[in-house]
Amino acid sequence: MTSDPDSAPGLPAGPVLPSSHAVPRSGAVPRPPGGHRSAAGPDPEPDRRPGAGLDRASDRVPAFDQDADADRLSRARASLRGLAVGDALGSQFFVPAHYPALQSGELPPGPWAWTDDTEMACSVLAVLAAHGRIDQDALAWSFAEHHDFDRGYGPAVNRMLRLIRQEGGDWRELAAGLFNGQGSWGNGAAMRIAPLGAWYAGDPERAAHQAEISAHTTHRHQEAVAGARAVAAATALVAGPAGPGTPDALLGAVLDLVPRSAVHAGIRRARDMLDYDDVATVAAVLGCGRHTSAQDTVPFALWAAVRHLDDYEQAFWTTARAGGDVDTNCAIVGGVVAARPGGEPPTAWTRRTEPLPQWAGVS
Ligand SMILES: [Mg+2]
């Protein structure tokens, strides 16, 4: 339900119910006010695009002039739409009156407002479109610039993004200082990253690397980083020209790109449970985001996604009925499944979902 860095070590967070959703702020493709490039974090890849790094107005405009970029953008947009529908519909099931609809498979009345998962994913895509890779300063600033307090963010990230936007806070210091210097292991770095995996379709190594870079802007704990790497790699494989392969092989390829961690152990366990049909049992073993941590969210989300890659609708209901952090679980699953041709959500679902903000360049 939230990017909740408040579920950091020893501090499991309770659910944060989505509140009334304000109209998202508009703005140009994000640029940081100053730039805090330092040695912290993994080395970003050099931006090799013509004119990259120039501080000029045209640098803020997404470049659509190359076929490769257009393909990347198209795939990433499809993933983002799937992520947003999963997030928006999933969040509807925190409303007690909608519980019966969850079991019967009925759709709650629209419009369905999306939450922090989608808002942050829009920033990921906007930065990729503008820079051709993850620029950490631009991404952190976009998160801060577009941060809407009413989208269900956890308290720690609310505070961090407010400090960046209003007081010129350095995201490196703020992210590294969370939870007594351990950094957040919340699922927020994973919840927003499927469109990046789609952008790097067929190149899961690069997707995982860029996901790690993106994670560091808010989530410094190794579990959060591992979760982001896993979701990005899975999406890149699903969207790639070779196709996803079998669920078992797909999760195996993801595991090759995830460092030893609780997330890695959880994905191994998820792979061992691919033939289980009882989602409640799987959720009980893997977790389903009740602690809003990467390690109790990503393994289950990938389990649900890879079992239903040909059917967005079934993937959604399977995921949602497990409970837990429903909007984030469904955002991850929706972003992975929709990255594949034919994996888009039903049109009726998309129509009920709140339009994406204009600044994301997706509408
Ligand atoms: Mg959310």
Automatic annotation (TrEMBL):
Region (Disordered): 1-69, 343-363
Gene3D superfamilies the UniProt entry points to: ADP-ribosylation/Crystallin J1
Cofactor detail note: Binds 2 magnesium ions per subunit.
Protein keywords: Hydrolase, Magnesium, Metal-binding
Statement: the UniProt record of this protein carries the keyword Signal: no
Superkingdom field: Bacteria
Residues that coordinate or bind Mg(2+): 115-117, 325, 327-328
GO molecular function: hydrolase activity; metal ion binding
Signal peptide interval: none
Co-factor(s): Mg(2+)
Transmembrane listed as a keyword: no
InterPro entries: ADP-ribosylglycohydrolase, Ribosyl_crysJ1, Ribosyl_crysJ1_sf
Name of the protein described by the UniProt record: Putative hydrolase
